[in-house]
Write a structure and sequence with these properties.
Rossmann fold, seven-stranded mixed β-sheet, five-stranded parallel β-sheet, metal-binding, Ribose-phosphate pyrophosphokinase, nucleotide biosynthesis
Length: 323
């Protein structure tokens, strides 16, 4: 990371993916969002103008790599190049949702590792640091040759369920075997047992032949995953738990991707409440009565403040005693 000049100011910019979250972070930090304009030409090309000096400043730029994924990613690339050419003291990319994170390995022959390619582009564009939240796999940090602060939403999620009184007689459920680690972490915070919905293939779960590993009958259940994409996996898990005799069923995830028919799947599911965060901006059409959105603005604001003042962010990862 570049050496910070003595007079370097903290400057926060927001691109188009999630300006509401950026404004919440600015309010937490008691700073204003800096002035930049993003223009899209009719052929899809992007033009960015930074309308104030950033020379020698510590710049934080927020952009989720969410739908439209490639457009939002290119906005981030162009913005970082503009900041680098404007002599910013440091460029810190805040990426609440890291698109392409699931393409983190070769699952078959001749397949790209796109998550690594994205990391390379971010570094080449001029980022000195990446601040991300709940990466699909923690190992993605190793794809970067620059510092990565991998923040966690799980403490706020656990606190929500505690405040709502949903921590007694509760079981945390992984909707498939790939989600066990996250479910175990939430269960530890809530001092609850875990269960697993046994899904053996990528097709829609056959509810009649599904297996729930663990005791859920007569218990409240929280189904936990890092993201909800099409909603099919989460809806299937709820149906399997209802069949197994669970009482109230809740869903919890950090990233509300909500692609395809996700909203319809979740509306019609057995969930009493679906808890997500605001890492991805949700249009009104994707909001519904069962949905509860927690803000991650305080997490990012604390991280930005600590990083700007050259303090350790370790306190953000050791909050078990405060839950």
């Amino acid at each position: 990371m570049k050496n910070k000049q003595a007079n370097g100011q903290l400057k926060l910019f927001a691109l188009n993916s999630n300006q509401e979250l950026a404004q919440k972070i600015a309010d937490q930090l008691e700073v204003k969002l800096c002035d930049a304009s993003v223009k899209h030409f009719s052929d899809g090309e992007i033009q960015i103008n930074i309308n104030e000096s950033v020379r020698g400043d510590d710049v934080f730029i927020l952009q989720s790599i969410s739908d439209p994924v490639n457009e939002n990613f290119m906005e981030l690339m162009v913005m970082m190049d503009a900041l680098r050419r404007s002599s910013a003291g440091s460029i810190n990319a805040i990426i609440p949702y890291y698109g392409y994170a699931r393409a983190d390995r070769k699952a078959r022959s001749r397949e790209p590792i796109t998550a690594k390619l994205i990391a390379n582009f971010i570094t080449l564009a001029g980022a000195d640091r990446v601040i991300a939240l709940d990466l699909h796999a923690g190992q993605l940090q190793g794809f970067f040759n620059i510092p990565v602060d991998h923040l966690l939403a799980i403490y706020e999620q656990a606190e929500h369920f505690k405040q709502a009184g949903i921590c007694q007689d509760v079981v945390v459920v992984a909707p498939d075997h790939n989600s066990v680690k996250g479910a175990r972490n939430l269960a530890d915070l809530l001092k609850a047992p875990i269960a697993i919905v046994d899904k053996r293939d990528e097709n829609r779960l056959d509810i009649e032949n599904s297996t729930v590993i663990g005791e859920v009958s007569g218990h409240n259940c929280i189904v936990y995953d890092d993201m909800i994409d099409t909603g099919a996996k989460m809806a299937d898990a709820a149906a399997a738990l209802a069949k197994a005799g669970a009482k109230d069923i809740y869903a919890c995830a950090t990233h509300a991707v909500f692609s395809g028919n996700a909203v319809e799947e979740l509306k019609d599911s057995a969930y009493k409440e679906i808890v997500v965060t605001d890492t991805i901006a949700l249009p009104q059409a994707k909001q519904f009565d069962k949905l509860k959105v927690l803000s991650v603005a305080p997490i990012f604001a604390k991280a930005i403040d600590l990083i700007y003042h050259n303090n350790s962010v370790d306190s953000l990862f050791n909050q078990k005693d405060n839950i």
